[in-house]
Design goal:
Shape: elongated
CATH class of the largest domain: Alpha Beta
Number of domains: 2
Structural class: alpha/beta
CATH topology of the largest domain: Rossmann fold
Strand content: 15-25%
Protein name: NDP-sugar epimerase, includes UDP-GlcNAc-inverting 4,6-dehydratase FlaA1 and capsular polysaccharide biosynthesis protein EpsC
Organism: Streptacidiphilus jiangxiensis
Radius of gyration: 27 Å
Number of helices: 16
Family: Belongs to the polysaccharide synthase family.
Helix content: 25-40%
CATH superfamily of the largest domain: NAD(P)-binding Rossmann-like Domain
InterPro entries: NAD(P)-bd_dom_sf, Polysac_CapD-like, Polysaccharide_Synthase-Rel
Strand order of the largest sheet: 10-9-8-11-12-13-18-22-21
Domain Polysaccharide biosynthesis protein CapD-like: 161-438
Number of strands: 22
Length: 500
């Protein structure tokens, strides 16, 4: 790429050379121009803009600073001009193009900042205080959908809505979005009072714990759930409560069954019994062709929900992958490790995962809820899977630590190298929403009721070996480790412990 310098015939119009990091601004529009002015007027920021990049060939100088070339010349300009910092000041830039520009700048050795798209809608000039440091999520290059259609809002508007697992990452975002659509009541259920305390403060701005909308309850307690449903008569239920950490459930499968399977059955039966209009289960991509206790318990939860279709309550499940911002998420851990010069731990060099922001996921859950009728499993469009090694390397380069160390720990029991959203036998059926597909999932087992009773009995006795066998009988795709040979099954009957 040939480096283009425009309008360098006169040096008399140049401003005095400011002190600070040599800063190149990408984008010479209103946002970039206002930002440059702000930085020049405020030397304390430590950023000294000396020029722009812009694809408009008619722009040669903007506020006395030269336009040094098009966006494609970024790497060349960074090298030629010894640029310290690159600021991308095009708020409307599509995520994929933004991610590509950020990587180019980082590969050239510059530090990177950018103006988020939110500021494109702000009716004032962009200021230096608007600058964001690059976060791991910026590198995913996803076009997000946050707009929920009016018809979808009517699902919760004026209704009594119950959210289980309300204090978790998904549950709390569900509460925030549902509340904005003016339900007649929003009941927030969690077994952890500390979660409810924090949630009330986030959602309402107060945390006195003095409202009947906060419900302390355990979804394993059927009698307590019947009391809640009989008293409050929720019309719409979003069931987000679950054990979700794969390694822990491999160690403690009985607990996964008690919460993810039995708890779901308690809730959906209470909903049907007490005339709930709509019931939506929050599921996971790990339910597709499950190899883990988490995936198997979530597929069973989907089956239980579907088994209650046609009983007066519109039921459905929504399946998606990793949610950015959830507790203990890989991206947060990665950013912490890199910031503290620690090796980043990844299970395998080839592992990849789907990612979606919690805001987008919940918005699409609400859209799917409007379509749920007969036990469908809805699958959200997660975009392309992201290779974890590439994500770490790109992020480390952007924050100025290109020599990051990566430590490979090996796939954990039950963990997949590559996640899928659909099982091989599942049909991907388009819906009226471009980001949501549907599938009927696995066939309901003839012995579902009997099998669940046996599964719950094994879980009640905290018999991990029996729990794994019972799940394998109900979910044929689930083949737990060391359960593929009769001799191994006999051996594990005597050797397996709950903390195996």
């Amino acid at each position: 790429m040939q480096l283009v310098h425009r309008d360098h015939r006169s040096r008399r119009t140049r401003p005095a050379r400011p002190t600070g990091c040599r800063t190149l601004i990408v984008g010479a529009g209103d946002a970039g121009r206002t930002l440059a002015h702000d930085l020049l007027e405020t030397p304390s920021y430590g950023l000294a803009p000396f020029g722009f990049l812009d694809d408009d060939p008619t722009k040669h100088r903007v506020d006395r600073l030269p336009v040094l070339g098009p966006l494609a010349a970024l790497a060349a300009v960074v090298q030629a001009e010894a640029v310290d910092v690159v600021i991308v000041a095009i708020p409307s830039l599509p995520p994929l193009e933004l991610a590509a520009l950020l990587r180019q700048a980082a590969d050239s050795g510059a530090r990177v900042r950018y103006l988020p798209a939110f500021h494109a809608a702000v009716q004032r000039g962009s200021r230096a205080g608007d600058l964001w440091q690059v976060s791991p999520t910026t590198l995913l290059g996803r076009d997000e959908i946050h707009v929920v259609r009016a018809a979808t809002r009517s699902v919760v508007a004026g209704r009594r809505v119950l959210v289980t697992g309300a204090g978790g990452s998904i549950g709390s975002e569900l509460c925030r979005q549902v509340r904005s659509y003016h339900p007649s009541a929003l009941y927030m259920l969690d077994h952890d009072e500390s979660n409810l305390h924090r949630l009330q403060l986030e959602v309402t701005g107060r945390a006195l714990l003095d409202t009947d909308e906060l419900l302390v309850a355990d979804i394993r307690d059927r009698a307590r759930l019947d009391q809640i449903f009989a008293t409050l008569r929720p019309e719409v239920v979003f069931h987000a409560a679950a054990h979700k950490h794969l390694p822990l459930l491999e160690l403690h499968p009985c607990e996964g069954v008690k919460s993810n399977v039995m708890g779901t059955q308690h809730l959906v039966e209470a909903a049907v019994t007490h005339g709930t209009r709509r019931f939506v289960l929050i599921s996971t991509d790990k339910a597709a062709s499950p190899t883990s206790v988490l995936g198997a318990t979530k597929q069973l939860a989907e089956l239980i929900v579907r088994s209650h279709a046609g009983e007066g309550t519109s039921v459905g499940s929504v399946r998606f992958g990793n949610v950015l911002g959830s507790r203990g998420s890989f991206l947060h851990v990665m950013a912490h490790q890199i910031a503290n010069d620690e090796p980043v731990t990844i299970t395998d060099p080839e592992v990849d995962r789907f990612f979606m922001t919690v805001e987008e996921a919940v918005g699409l859950v609400l859209e799917a809820a409007a379509m749920a009728e007969a036990g469908e499993t809805f699958v959200l469009d997660m975009g392309e899977p992201v290779r974890m090694v590439s994500l770490v390397e790109n992020y480390a380069a952007l924050v100025g630590k290109p020599d990051v160390q990566i430590r490979f720990t090996g796939l954990r029991p039950g963990e997949k190298l590559n996640e899928t959203l659909f099982a091989e036998a599942e049909e991907n059926v388009p819906t009226a929403h471009p980001r949501i597909s549907a599938t009927r999932g696995a066939v309901l087992p003839d012995n579902l009721d009997t099998g669940l009773k046996e599964l719950y009995e094994a879980a009640g006795h905290n018999d991990s070996c029996a729990v794994r066998r019972r799940m394998a009988a109900l979910v044929p795709e689930y083949r737990p480790p060391l359960l593929t040979e009769p001799a191994a099954r006999d051996l594990l009957d005597t050797l397996w412990l709950d903390d195996f």
